Predict the structure.
Amino acid sequence: MAQSSVNNGVNVEALLAAREALKDAPQAAKFTWRASCRWQNGTHSQTKIQGFHGLGEEQKHKTEFSFDADHPEVFASEDLGITPIEYVLVGLASCLTAGVASVAQNRGIQLRSVEAKLEGTMDLQGILGIDGDVRNGYDDIKVTFNIDADASKKDIEAIVAQSQKRSAVYDVLTNPVNVSVQVA
Amino acid sequence: MAQSSVNNGVNVEALLAAREALKDAPQAAKFTWRASCRWQNGTHSQTKIQGFHGLGEEQKHKTEFSFDADHPEVFASEDLGITPIEYVLVGLASCLTAGVASVAQNRGIQLRSVEAKLEGTMDLQGILGIDGDVRNGYDDIKVTFNIDADASKKDIEAIVAQSQKRSAVYDVLTNPVNVSVQVA
């Protein structure tokens, strides 16, 4: 199959060109992503995202995106959005999926469909302070891909493995990140 | 100031009752959060969230929530949503903010406004495979709270510190999580 006939909608040439350009301009590769959150009431908050910094200058998304988070009714909240810890699953799912599309394009493999199911398990005895030995967050996250593509199972597994190897969200979950929290 | 006059919209009594109930039923404290992601085109995906498991049975949010993720135009994508790694900031911001409201309520402190600004820095030399020593994800995340409340700066800082101590998203970023990725 000729690679030129493969179109997953990812502009791999532009990404490879960016890689070459950034090799010679490492400062431009430094990105800062930003979010601005405002408490609404109870456990309900709204977070807005638009601007970021990268390629040596200020950038912004085409529109401002806004996200409501809340706790569900079983926690005596109003359920006006998904929970904060579910947003982590959104990030992981979309990061690995974008990676699958990009790697498949680079390898000349046509995708027909990609679905990922995620499950994160968490023991509330941590966050509620019942048991100090139980962590607050996920103890385990499972991601299962269902991929329909012009490729063998082995090739598909290799694409997923490469996506995982280069995933920003997979990295921040499986390795520690410095997080500092302060009051202005 | 009488604690009864404080209303941040958090039902702390219900949370404390839940803590007591779960002490005697640790199995009910085990939660599973789920997400289902479908690739759209290029780096664009859509993730849906509604059902979860907890308190010993299937639960669901009042509505299904849907989230688009994409890469921005500077990465030759269509910018049809925020990036996956920005979703992590949404989760962290909302987790710490819900915690601030809950802890303040529990301590009898009236909040007037809570805002959090987040910045996550990341060197694209990692994700682009330019330098194997550079990580894929954030090397550093800074969270800065601006809080207007009936409390001293010291009390406000203590509320934020307690929120951080019990934050599920702060935990999964600062400590490693087991993440397994497989192809069905």
Remarks:
- The longest strand of chain B covers residues 57-69.
- The two ends of chain B are 58 Å apart (CA to CA).
- Residues 84-106 of chain B form the longest helix (23 residues).
